Structures are given as structure tokens and as C-alpha cells.
Amino acid sequence: MEKQPRLLSSQLLLKNRVFEVTLNRAILAWKEITTKKKRVSGSIHNTFKVDSYCVPVSEIVAVRETEVDSRTKDEGRWQKMSQESTEGHSSYAFTVSYVERGRQHRWRCNDVTFHCSDGLLCQQWVQSIREQLSLLSSRPKHLLVYINPYGGKQQGKLIYEEKVAPLFSRASISTDVIVTEYANHARDHLKVDVDLKKYDGVVCVGGDGMFSEIIHGLISRTQADCGVDQNCAEEKLVPCTTRIGIIPAGSTDCICYATVGINDPVTSALHIIVGDSQPLDVCSVHHNNTFLRYSVSLLGYGFYGDMLRDSERKRWMGPVRYDFSGVKTFLTHHYYEGTVSFLPATDILGTPRDKSMCRAGCYICQHNGQLLSEDSQLYKMEEDISHSAAEMQGDWQMIRGKFLAINAASMSCACPRSPKGLSPAAHLADGTTDLILVRKCSRINFLRHLLRHTNKDDQFDLAFVEVHRVRKFRFTPKQCESDLDLRQGGAGGGKKLFGQICRDHPACGCTPINSSWNCDGEILPHAAIEVGAHCQLIRLFARGIEDQPLFEDYCTPSVI
Ligand SMILES: CCCCCCCCCCCCC/C=C/[C@@H](O)[C@H](CO)NC(=O)CCCCCCCCCCCCCCC
Ligand SMILES: Nc1ncnc2c1ncn2[C@@H]1O[C@H](COP(=O)(O)OP(=O)(O)OP(=O)(O)O)[C@@H](O)[C@H]1O
Ligand SMILES: [Ca+2]
After folding, report:
1. Distance between Cα 471 and ligand 3 center (Å)
2. If pLDDT is split at 50, 70 and 90, which confidence band does 509 have?
3. Ligand nearest, relative to CA of residue 258
4. What's the CA gap between 174 and 277, in Å, rounded?
5. d(CA 473, CA 479)
6. Which residues face 53 on adjacent strands?
7. What is the mean pLDDT of residues 228-233?
8. Which residues are marked as active site?
9. Ligand 2 interacting residues, C-beta cut-off 6 A
10. Hey, which bits of 74-196 come out as E strands?
């Protein structure tokens, strides 16, 4: 690795011990060298114990001059250390706030205070660190915050005021805060009213439903500004440039959990402050060439759709509603007939059965997404051509059957209920979704499948379960299948008829013969849908789940 030139180096006091403190463009480091007496088989030896710590500049939250309490002044120590430097008998200090890693991907903001012998040196340190921080161009300075006061356990406002706002102000981030007054308030505000150029990002305090509002607002706004028609399922959507931060305060918080590794408000606030960026795939859902919704986590028909429909009536219960409705839906054991057709993603790295998972800096996402380089533009054009060629050649596969669940997971969907998620090897930004088909089976077998979401066993390694990594898929419930046959027989004309039958058929999407689609926690109004994955359409203030260190020394700043 290239060695960075030193910007500053001084001997400073920390907790009454002398440290050599150095700053370069990338790292703030401090190292203590003390002589200690050690008794070895009866005789005394002098040994050196070296305590060294370092913090990447990119993980420094802020630096400030600190008032030194006269009772704790380190004058005596300074005199011992150097007669010269303590001539004025005064002490000055500055405090650096930085990211400290805890267990299970938790981040905390920790402080370290260095004492200097003179005020000028202290100011020089503060100024130098601030200069380095100001060079970090990906950090947000001004944010628009939406708080859902009714999400999860209704703690959104409190969480923001007590845990997040103080960190933002320490990091000199200014905010405009809107507490939502009704459902879709944030979505509609973003769609039309907000001057997005004023902000470096949008933050939502709430759950997956609140996040969904934000992405609907931002994506629709971006398409409208660029003249893209969302109703056309074949349109290539324009990526949103405004990054989104999620402060988890919902019931499932799966998007936060799967992109950060934990649903913890302080951890998420710190990822926003350091200016992380994680692209995310988005699926568009259409019915009969009409746009319905976007999905980033789960599109689930059958089990998860029925569970959601039941749980909506129990909102008053808070997050446990999902467990009640989950057990009830499990006991009901409904299956649904229909046809799933899908376009497998054959030209990419990775499969849903991989043992390795999507992690921070994921190579598979980078490769499959071919981020923003000139090559990638070329690649994308070729890719588009080859996709449409594949579609025309009829690489679509079709499965007709009776299903307990049809799930499309565009990310792992890891959450506290299932830390590995619905599709553990799914990728956040590879431009695909994992289509999981659970065929009709006995209750006990379905329970085995569900239980495997919570332990190390493979939930796909069962005869009645199959999983495909796809770019697009369609579902047609049995009641609309006659139309599907027509559609395959004749190109354009069939499409019109498909819509006709679906709309006129009383059983389509609204009677108990069919299930409903759970689209990131919202019920869709139609059972017959057409889904397409859009690679890296949005960006979050996150970095993906970090690999855990091999040895469990979680006490950052990292000990060198
Ligand atoms: C025996 C224990 C089995 C546990 C199986 C747990 C599997 C959990 C998989 C979670 C997947 C979450 C996907 C995320 C979806 C979000 O876009 C959406 C919006 O927030 N959340 C939900 O739809 C809310 C989803 C909430 C899912 C709760 C499912 C609870 C199932 C309970 C089944 C119990 C059977 C017991 C039989 C005696
Ligand atoms: N002021 C408000 N009043 C009523 N509903 C609101 C308000 N603001 C937002 N909402 C709606 O509340 C719904 C649920 O919110 P949210 O996602 O924050 O919590 P949750 O459903 O408990 O959590 P999760 O989505 O993680 O399961 C969202 O669909 C959102 O549209
Ligand atoms: Ca994906």
C-alpha cells in the first residue's frame, strides 16, 4: 500500500500517558511507549510495552477543542515529560469522535481526548483534522429527514431526537425535518414539492413501509424529470442520484438489516455521517401494462401475502402481529394454482445456492453491475441487446403448478426473525431477483422449510422447493390461464385480451381463490403481475454487511 506523507506528528497526553500522535491523509494514529519493569525468574528486566491505535480519517465523525477541567490538568505529567513544553503551566485539549465497531455489525461513536502543552498546537491539530474531513466529498452536509411517528413501536420521533439528531449536529450536518401526518405524505412530497438539489440525501425514520414511500417518491420524480413512462414495463428506468438513509424504527426493518447487518439507529446514523454509498436493485411490478409498485426486498404470493393481509387487521399489536398472522396462515395451509414464467439470469456471476454471501465491496455486484465506467456503458448496451435477443429466442421458462408460496427476493431479506434471510446468497446490486417456488406439500414439510430460515440448514434443499436467479418473471393465476395460452399463441393481440379477462374476471386478485402479493409489506391489488429487476436504480447511505474480523478484537480504534 502507498505510504501517505505525515501531515502532523506530536507528543500528546491521553489519560495522563504520553503518546506519539500522527496524522496523514488516511489515518490518525497514536502510540504509547512506556518502560515497564518485568520480573523474570527472580531478576528484574526492563521491557517495552507498545500500545498503538489507529482510526481511518474516513471514520472520524468530528473534532472539537475541549475545555480542560483545572482539577484534571496534566501539568505534573507535562513537567515530567518536558520542562520546555510546560513553561506556561497551561493545558489545552481536543476531542476526536470516531466510529467504533462493536459486536454484530454495531457501530458506536467514541471519543478520545488528547491534551497538548500549548494552545497553538491544539488549534493546529483541530484545524488539520478538519481540513482532512472537509476533503471527504461523499459526506452529506444537508439532509431532508422524514419521520413516521406511527411505524413499529411508534418510537420514531424519540429515536430520532435522542439518538440521531445529536450525532448529526456533532458532525455539522444540518437537517430539514418533516414528521409525516398521513400515509404517503413523504412519497407525495418527494414526488412534486421538494427541491432535491438542496439536499445531499433523504433520511427516513421508520420501517420498510416508510422506506418504500421514499423510493416511490424519488424514483417517480426521477422518471418524470427524465420523461420516462413508468407504465411501460419495457422502459429502462433512470437511476436516482439522491442517496437514502434509513434510521430503523419499524416492525421488520429488513432493508436496513440486510444492507447494514443490524437494525440499530446509531449504526445507521454513523453510516450516513461517513457518507457510505450502497447501490440497490429495484423490481418494477406491472399489471396489464400499468405500473403498480416498486419492490426492493420481498414480493411474496401465497404464504407471505396471506400473512400480510391478515396482519394488516392487527396493526394495533405492533411488530408481533406478524408472528400471530404467521402462525395462523401456517395453520390455514392454503395453496394456489397458477403459472410462473421467468427469464433466468444466465450471463452473470453467482447462483442462489452459493455458500458465499453479498458483503461490503461485493465483487459479484461490481462485476454484474459494471459500475459507471465507459466499458460498462458498452457492456450495458451489449447486455441489453443480448437480453432482448434472449427474450426473442424464447429463453423464458414456464412452470405450472400448485404453490404454497411464490417469493421473489431481490436481496437476502435478512431480518431479526431470520438473520440469513429468505435467500441468503441474494445480492443487493447484481440486477437480479431470486425466485423461490414452494410447491404444495404437507404442513410438516412446509414447517421444515420455514424452520430452516432460522438455522444453518439449507431451506432450498427440499424436493418441493426450487430457486432461480431471474431478471424478469410473470405470474398468472389459474383463473387467467386461458388468456395466457392466447397470449403465447399470438403476440400483441393477446396482451389486450389478457387485461380484459383479468379485469372482468371476478376471481382475479380479489376473492379467496387467489392469494395477494405482499410487495415489501404492501398488498398489491392484482394477482397477475409482471416483474422486472432494474440494476442499481437507487443508492443508500450504507456499505453492505462488513465481514467480521477473524479474531474477536472489537475494541476499535484498531490496535496495530
Ligand atoms: C417456526 C418459525 C419459522 C420462522 C420463519 C421465519 C421466516 C422469516 C422470513 C422473514 C422474511 C422477511 C421478508 C421481509 C419482508 C418485508 O418486505 C415486509 C415489510 O416489512 N415484511 C413482512 O412482510 C413481514 C414478514 C414477517 C414474516 C414473519 C413470518 C412468521 C412465520 C411464523 C410461522 C410460524 C409457524 C409455526 C407453526 C407452529
Ligand atoms: N403519519 C402517518 N400516519 C399513518 N401512516 C403513516 C404515516 N406516515 C407513514 N405512514 C405509513 O405507515 C406505514 C408503516 O410504516 P413503517 O414502515 O414505518 O412501519 P412498520 O410497518 O411498523 O414497519 P415495517 O414496514 O418494517 O414492517 C407505511 O406504509 C407508511 O406509508
Ligand atoms: Ca439483487
Report:
1. 9
2. very low
3. 1
4. 19
5. 18
6. 30, 559
7. 96
8. 208
9. 148-152, 180-185, 206-210, 213, 250-253, 521
10. 92-101, 107-116, 142-147, 174-179
